[in-house]
Amino acid sequence: MAAELPILHEACFTYPCIDNHAHPLLTAGNREKVEFEGIIAEATGPALFEDSVHTLACYKATAQLAKLFGLGPDTTWGDVKAARSAAPYDELCALSMKPTNIQCILFDDGLGGVEELCESYKWHNRFTKSPNKRIVRVEVVAQDILKPLVDASHLSSSSSDPSYLATLLETFSAKLTASIQASAQDPEVVGFKSVACYRTGLDVATSCTQAELEGALSSCLQRYVTTSTLRLDDKHLNDYVVRTTLEIAGRCNKPVQFHTGLGDNDLTLTRSSPAHLQAVIKAYPSTPFVLLHSSYPYTRDAGYLCSVYRNVYVDFGEIFPFVSGTGQRAVIRQVLELCPTNKIMWSTDGHWWPESYYLGTIQAREALYAVLAEAVAAGDLDEKQAVRVAQDALFHNANRIYSLGLSPL
Q: In b/e form, how buried is each residue of 322-351, taking b as 16+ CB within 10 angstroms?
């Protein structure tokens, strides 16, 4: 890409960055355990294997990975897969991570499969100049607390007994509060994450009655008896976990990330707009809310919330490489329409494969430069201001919001 604005070009393409939301890489022994097509789409089944490879996102990723692997201009997706499979895993990781200039990664290590298949978040320090940190996924914490409590009580017909439910709820609540509080005080933890979007939607209630909470717990337990899988998937119970987190996070000045918008078909798209969070944002004004994944396709909703609430921030991540290049630039333009530039952060949402970090970084840098250069040409800001926007979005905003205390290296 021609450097028509050389100072801005240098800032966008070389400035150190903080990846404010990502997941760990697979271990070498598990490198082929997850289908590589997942790097370009959130789809599953035939929609992933038969359709996603025909998207503009896949065509672009193929060309960029072909260049990374030293392949020719006629490289196919199959060629890319073969090349990566043949490469020694440590070399593949180093090759993918070195060009990113990611200084620090904030890891959500509560993603399903991470514990069994992936390296620890500290293992990734070999790729970054500053130590990486954790983001605690609160629904997983809640499930891990509730399951042994239920198992210890030899649950059978007691799942609807009022006395049992009241006692269980009291014990669960105390342990959940203690766990979230301990995480908030852990220097390795810089924030929390909720996947309420996937479970019951983002319309998180600001309160509920004891009877409603016990009813949701009863429903959860009855489903556990039937399926042998304990999953928080009942609105009043899920919302209670989120509220507990928001309360503690607000006191400790820890951001709470929310999955918004773009995701796989487990979520209900109409309930994934961050606009549904408005009531709870107002109810917890001291708690920093981070709206993940560009809230795509509800990006303008996220920008609006950032513009009117002091405690709301937006992450322009995951659209790299899931969305076409034209779409990526459109998303960044929509973020900049209304959102204050001191509230914009970037992430790769990197996961499983090292190439996801590579694509998530280089495509973000390209799109950010293109949009900011366009804004300078239009007279919306000068090059010096554009440089500051880029540096803030890539590094300084996340550094401040998560209280990382880093200097760019």
A: bbbbebbbbbbebbbeebebebbbbbbbbb
